[in-house]
Write a structure and sequence with these properties.
By secondary structure, the protein is an alpha/beta fold. The protein has one domain (6-137): Rossmann fold, CATH 3.40.50. Helix content is 40%, strand content 16%. A 5-stranded parallel β-sheet has the order 2-1-3-4-5, with helices on both faces.
C-alpha cells in the first residue's frame, strides 16, 4: 500500500476546502494537504515564485474551475505549458456540469474531471474516491524537485 501524497487543493470556497480536508483526514493514507484560495497564488506556488521559492512540488493538484485572480483552466494550461510541471496530475473538481467546461478541461490536459456533488455525504465520498484512486491505484510519475 502506498503512503499519502502531497496534494495541492485550489478552491476559493473555504467550506469546500474544509470538507475536503475532513474527507482526506479519514483516509487510510495520510496525505499532506496544501490549500490555496485563488488562482494567482496557486500559480505562484506551482512556479515557486516569491514566498513559495522553497515550496515542495505536489504529487497531485485538485483544482476548482472558478477561481478569483485566474481561473482553473488558466492554471491547468500553465501547468501543461511548463516542462517542470507538465507531467503533474491534475484533477478538476468543480460544481460545473456543463459539457463545454468538461471538454475544455480535457482538451487542456486535465487527467480527470469530477463534478462536485450537492450533498455532504456525496461530496465527502467524491473526495475520498479521488484520494483512493490517485493514492491507492494510480502509478504517478516520480516527484520533481
Amino acid at each position: 500500500m502506498k503512503s499519502g501524497l502531497r496534494l495541492l487543493l485550489v478552491d476559493d470556497n473555504p467550506a469546500d476546502i474544509g470538507l475536503a480536508r475532513e474527507a482526506l483526514a479519514r483516509c487510510v493514507r495520510q496525505s499532506e494537504i496544501i490549500s490555496l484560495e485563488n488562482g494567482v497564488e496557486a500559480l505562484s506556488f506551482l512556479k515557486r515564485g516569491g514566498m513559495y521559492a522553497d515550496a515542495i512540488r505536489p504529487d497531485l493538484v485538485i483544482l476548482d474551475l472558478s477561481l478569483p485572480g485566474c481561473d482553473g483552466l488558466t492554471i491547468l494550461r500553465a501547468i501543461r505549458g511548463l516542462p517542470e510541471l507538465r507531467r503533474m496530475p491534475v484533477v478538476m473538481f468543480s460544481t460545473s456540469r456543463l459539457g463545454r467546461d468538461i471538454a475544455r478541461c480535457y482538451e487542456s490536459g486535465a487527467n480527470c474531471y469530477v463534478s462536485k456533488p450537492g450533498s455532504l455525504n456525496e461530496f465527502l465520498a467524491a473526495v475520498r474516491s479521488i484520494e483512493e484512486f490517485w493514492c491507492g491505484f494510480a502509478a504517478l510519475p516520480p516527484a520533481i524537485d
